[in-house]
């Protein structure tokens, strides 16, 4: 299991490095088409830094607000959930995150924040009502693992890069291509290549973001099972969540990768490779299988 975690960390950093290369290349192509040299690359980096700064200081608040999350200020408001999370934090040596509840019957949960000392975990009312103690504990351990492994920070970075690529593509359509189209035919082929690249770069970025998200779910499952020492609890929780087909009322493609299960409905096996490219989560059956393999190995 430790080897699996280390492997996922290496592969995720590789994907983020590739993503950074795509962003830099998009900026360079934009600058070349505009005739501004490295200015396009500089623009891409400044845009990314600006979006990263906003996400770093306010991204978690925006996510919680968009999900309709309400903070639990004290143990007395929801002692059952508070005690589960507090006991897991004591076991793992983590500080207690801020707890939030979302009034939604769809069972789901997510974690956000830039580090363990500034983290939040949100649970829907549906997941609290649906799951038994060991199952809800498994879900809480999964979300705390996202925080401890700094997954929330990585995913925030990747999401920002996707947004930067999308904005650059929009700028190209509105400004760059129109300006360059009247400056002679010698640059025609390069303009077409640049146009195609900048159309595809947000798609490539989204695919990379989703690939990172899927790897992080496997990692958080493994880490959560290590924390509770009871993989079956999370396995049963995922099975129950997968039987609920109704999407979250606050479901959004921008935050779908943060939830423990897709807010649009569970991801199933036997999907085409193309459909899997655009899936935020690995199939539930695969996750349950991995957890039960861990349980059998104990």
Concise overview:
This protein has 298 residues and is α+β, with helices and mostly antiparallel strands. The chain has helices at 2-34, 39-66, 79-92, 125-130, 133-148, 151-180, 188-228, 231-242, 273-277, 284-297, and strands spanning 69-72, 98-102, 109-113, 119-124.
Based on helices, strands and strand pairing, what is the structural class?
Answer: alpha+beta
Percent range of helical residues? 55-70%
Gyration radius, in Å: 21 Å
Helix count, DSSP H or I runs of 4 or more residues: 10
Shape summary: elongated
Q: Termini, distance in Å?
A: 11 Å
- Biggest sheet, open or closed, and with what strands and sense? 4 strands, mixed
Order of helices and strands: HHEHEEEHHHHHHH
Instruction: State which percent range the strand residues make up.
Output: 5-15%
Descriptive report:
This protein has 298 residues and is an alpha+beta fold. Helices cover 67% and strands 7% of the residues. The protein has one domain (2-297). It has helices at 2-34, 39-66, 79-92, 125-130, 133-148, 151-180, 188-228, 231-242, 273-277, 284-297; strands at residues 69-72, 98-102, 109-113, 119-124. The chain has a 4-stranded mixed β-sheet, sandwiched between helices.
Features:
single chain; 298 residues; alpha+beta; four-stranded mixed beta sheet; 10 helices; 67% helix; 7% strand
What does the secondary structure layout of this molecule look like, with pairings?
Layout: H1 2-34, H2 39-66, E1 69-72, H3 79-92, E2 98-102, E3 109-113, E4 119-124, H4 125-130, H5 133-148, H6 151-180, H7 188-228, H8 231-242, H9 273-277, H10 284-297
Parallel strand pairs: 2-4
Antiparallel strand pairs: 1-2, 3-4
